[in-house]
Design goal:
about 140 residues; alpha+beta; Arc Repressor Mutant, subunit A; Dna Ligase, domain 1; three-stranded mixed sheet; 6 helices; about 40% helix; about 15% strand; binds zinc ion
């Protein structure tokens, strides 16, 4: 679903925060506002740079991201880079990442549900598997030329 920026978008952020059991403080709404429905994994530093005009310091960005992560609003995407990348967790998907230039492509489908039953059967120490993350790595067409 696509949202127009503006009041409607703001209303959506409040709903997301409330859904995560978080108070909609000004910094949290601002940090959440940097994320979009598109696949765009971001680091805390990148979010901070986009919020310079809001005068929100980096520590606040980190704190907001931590509370978002704990309440399941964002998840960490492992891009095999030094920084931690975050993205909204409302549309579950996987990525292919170029090992050379870092290009990220979103996979349309998650077909893991069938194998999940097998995985669940094969583990000995877990009663439930509740989520998963899975990223693929390779060389993009540009870098391969
Ligand atoms: Zn993504
Ligand atoms: Zn590449
Ligand atoms: Zn999946």
């Amino acid at each position: 679903m696509k949202y127009e920026r503006g009041d409607y978008m703001k209303g959506k952020f409040y709903d997301i925060l409330r859904g995560g059991g978080l108070k909609a403080t000004k910094p949290r709404v601002a940090v959440l506002g940097v994320f979009s429905d598109d696949c765009r994994p971001m680091t805390a530093e990148e979010i901070f740079q986009k919020l310079l005009h809001e005068k929100i310091d980096l520590a606040t960005v980190y704190r907001s991201l931590k509370s978002f992560e704990e309440s399941g609003i964002v998840e960490i995407v492992n891009l095999h880079k030094d920084s931690i990348y975050y993205e909204l967790s409302d549309h579950h998907h996987h990525h292919v990442i170029c090992k050379k230039c870092g290009l990220v492509e979103r996979l349309k489908e998650c077909d893991i549900d069938a194998s999940l039953k097998q995985i669940q059967k094969s583990v000995r120490n877990f009663k439930h598997i509740t989520s998963h993350s899975l990223e693929f790595f390779g060389i993009c067409k540009k870098c391969a030329d």
